[in-house]
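Subject: sequence -> structure tokens, single chain

Hey, anyone have a minute? Need the predicted structure for the following. Not urgent.
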Amino acid sequence: MSLFLWFLTWRLSSALSLLLLSVVGIQTGLEVVQATVCSRRGATRDKSLSQDGDVIIGGLFNLYYKPSAVEQGYTRLPSYEPCTGLDLEPLKYTYAMAFAVEEINRNSTLLPGVKLGYRILDSCSRYPWALQAGDQLVPLLICAASSTTGIMLSRILGPLSVPVISYLASCPCLSDRTKFPNFFRTIPSDIYQARAMAQLAIRFNWTWMGAVIENNDYGQLAIQVFQEEIQGKGVCLEFIEALHRETIVSDARRAALKIKASTATVILIFCWYTDVKKVFLELAKRNVTDRQFLASEAWSTSDDLLQDLAISKVASGVLGVAIRSSTIPGFENYLRSLHPSHRPDDEFIREFWQKEFGSCSGTESLEGVQHPFTDTSQLRVAYNVYLAVYAAAHALHSLLSCPNRDSPPGNNSSTCSSPKHIKPRELLQHLNKVNVTTPQGEMFYFQGADIPAKYDLVNWQNTPEGSLKLVLIGRVDGFDLHLNESAIQWSTGSNQVPVSVCSESCPPGTRKANRKGEPLCCFDCIPCAEGEISNTTGSLHCERCPSEFWSNSEQTACVPRQLDFLSFNETLGITLTTAAVSGAAVTTAVFVVFICYRKTPMVRANNSELSFLLLLSLKLCFLCSLVFIGRPSVWSCRFQQAAFGISFVLCVSCLLVKTLVVLAVFRSARPGAETLMKWFGPGQQRGSVCLFTSVQVIICAIWLSLSPPEPRPDLGFKGSKVTLECAMASVVGFSLVLGYIGLLACTCLLLAFLARKLPDNFNEAKLITFSMLIFCAVWVAFVPAYVSSPGKYVVAVEIFAILASSYGLLLCIFAPKCFIILLRPEKNTKKHLMAR
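Reply:
Had a minute. Here:
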């Protein structure tokens, strides 16, 4: 608790001192303009760079890098070790601020008659030191460091309406004008760079990534925006490792081990470049060179990393979002002209000179020397500093301009401000209205706290010397991404985009199936079912094909279903055709035998005329089955059912009449039954057959004229083929045809059954009974088989029933007779037939 109480007491005292200084400044009329140019990036805190002027702009930079953290206990007040090691990049930002001030002072149209001055201090990346340095700059123009420092300073200086302008604090939270009404910045909000990085991940199909972030507002809020952007886009983060500046050594080691063990090949890093270097050195120790890194603007352009040969293999191919680059005419000459002898009060340039040249003899010079400090080819953060100074200058110019200065004193409608009497609240109002053109011709204005977002997209590529070079490969305008993919050199050293997925994308013909308990990016690929397709990579669902179509073998497209029917060329068609033709041939052979032996007792005793008619009808039954084979047409559909129905009625009618004749013959032997045979003479038999058959002809005629069968594809059967069949438009018609055949067959069976025991050596009624039993059994079994059979097998079932019943009649009735006629001629006598 002592640490917390110390910090709270210190912070309150700092805030009170700020308030006191401001009040004193206002009351004495010595208040100086209070606007802030702040950074996000540690040397003793007494060193400063300053220049006198009518209006003083304060700057706060991380000029020195802080040392390793000292473990803080709870038995004494917390303390920090001094910062050492001058950081050249922030030093360049410092002189960019000084250059901009001097340039403005030479401009006769901007702030005429007013001389700008500055005072720049170091914050050492320590939040308490940044606040204390800010305290020293009040009531001057002050500067904050980092998003977290910007939040602190903005909140403390907010009640005093002191403007704060930042060139590196990119936290999206600072755009909230209700919380930070005095905050401005010349760097875009991290919303834009996080969204751009998410767009890159989606564009290159990196669905499985790792993330390393700085454990502060910058890192936490940036990764939050990134996660919001990738939500629902199929991108997952395998891990998020946070780095603490105070424990960077152990944290970098832990992050390196996590990256090495990860299955993700693309790693997103939202960190400051010094921390990234620690991680890269740990990865280099472990020879991890197969990772593709996605860089935030905080380290994507760091010369310290690009020139370090120890990490070149690890960092090769980095793809990053960078602060947009620009030029500052004359700035390079300004940097090269810097010399300790010319600036005796400049402690920073003296220390830089000692570091680079080892002495300050006066003969050393930066002219003609290739050094990162004098490299102005790609000014990014320095240009933001430059813009921040110009924003403050234009706001001051607007505030100090007096439109009614020449009017009589009593007619002034507004009070004119002077450099010695500037109120922070008024300056804040003018900053909100800044809309000018920079010396480079760029339109500059604030949208609330922000400026329009612009970034460069950069790529780290190998050089023959072994180091890395920065290559511009695209840009970001707001939320629009413009990228030259062909110019990218990836970590693999080739132009092939790295693959970073938990599961390979499901190819067309399959669908995703999420694994239980795993992230959405980890899934299995399940083949689509038959009749379903997926024609894109990574489909979530398979789509069912329309009824006229079916899926191809790869399940990637719906193709028209092939027309299928029982043809003469396939095995089943050939088999049934052979059986039908054979039956017809056997029937013909029996017919020939009966003709040749027509005068024998066996043929004459069984009513030869009806026998010949029965053989003819059986032949028609065999032949009509052939009409069912082949491609259905309008006429074949009509003819096949009519031929089937009439042929079988003719056949059964003959058997029925033969049965009636047998019964009549034996009944006529009884006394008083002589007249019975008059009704069963040859003429009456032919008439009866014609009568029974004509009823079927009438049924078929009415059915086929009103609602005939028509060829139609059967879409109900699911498969790659659609059966072309003769669809029954009227089930009633077909039922009447079958019902009439069944009625005659049952009547014949009943009568034959009654006549089976009549005294005769060769009782044909027994043969008819047996044949009718087979006939009825076949057609009773036909109904369920017909209904349940798929596709063309419906036709095959009907043909089989026709052939089976025809063969049953042919064999049961005529086989015994042919056996006697041909093989037992001694039994083919009247005496034998009449014997009882």
